[in-house]
Amino acid sequence: MSGVDSWQGLQRRIGLTGGIASGKSSVGSYLLSQGLPVLDADFYAREALAPGSKAAETVLQRFGFLVHAPQKSRTKVDATSQQIDRQALSQIVFNDAIERLWLEQLIHPIVKERLEQEIELHSKASALALVIPLLFEAGLEKLCTEVWVVSCSDKQQQERLMARNGLSAIEAKRRIEAQWPLERKRELADHVINNDGEPHSWQKQVLQLL
Questions:
Q1: What is the chain's pLDDT, residue by residue, as a tens digit (210 residues)?
Q2: 130: closest CA among 18, 207, 54, 2?
Q3: For the chain, is the Cβ count within 10 Å smaller at the N or the C terminus?
Q4: Based on the domain organization, do 29 and 133 belong to the same domain?
């Protein structure tokens, strides 16, 4: 990755990315166990759609009852407490590129702001990790001093996604294709972590990079 595109500071900021179901979360958890603060963009994206948030209200206004989560209580629910059915929302955006782009344009700035806030809170740490699935797609590599891409074979990625999310082969393929190809991400990475082999076989690579 070109130095022009990376953050130039004393703090080491590892941008951890890859394809869906390639193993980013496992590597992130391992970095946390090694003592690094780990900031998770997925957590901030879920936080952005919490009941009552502006983003959640915007999503509910756009999709209405199609994304209303079932309510446990029979009492009437107002807009500030209505939960979003994330699975229903995923079905919509992964089947419609226009809706997916709309949602990304809504959520990405919120996630970027939250990442910047958390980075500031950890400003005294010598190193930290930013787990960002859509790091390149959202142009967030500029927050990092280096980018690690967790990679696996196309076949493994699809099989892992199907098993993890209970998806059909077609659904899994559609979600994989919604992101940049792993090959493209590998080309842009400073380091590629190979997650093709046995579980946790990548740990040696990570320790060497640290």
A1: 544 478 888 899 999 999 999 999 999 999 999 999 999 999 999 999 999 999 999 999 999 999 999 876 555 555 567 899 999 999 999 999 999 999 999 999 999 999 999 999 999 999 999 999 999 999 999 999 999 999 999 999 999 999 999 999 999 999 999 999 999 999 999 999 999 877 788 999 999 999
A2: 18
A3: C
A4: yes
Regarding whether 167 and 135 lie in a shared domain, the answer is yes
**Domain identity same for 148 and 116:** no
On the 0-12 / 13-18 / 19+ scale of CB atoms within 10 A, 2 is exposed
Same domain, 56 and 104: yes
Q: What is the pLDDT of residues 66-79, one digit of tens each?
A: 999 987 655 555 55
List the one residue out of 15, 22, 1, 29 whose CA is nearest residue 182. Answer: 22
84 bridge partner residues: 68
| Pair 166, 104 in one domain | no
38-40/12-18 β-pairing: unpaired
Domain that includes residue 188, residue range:
1-37+126-210
Both 29 and 83 in one domain: the answer is: no
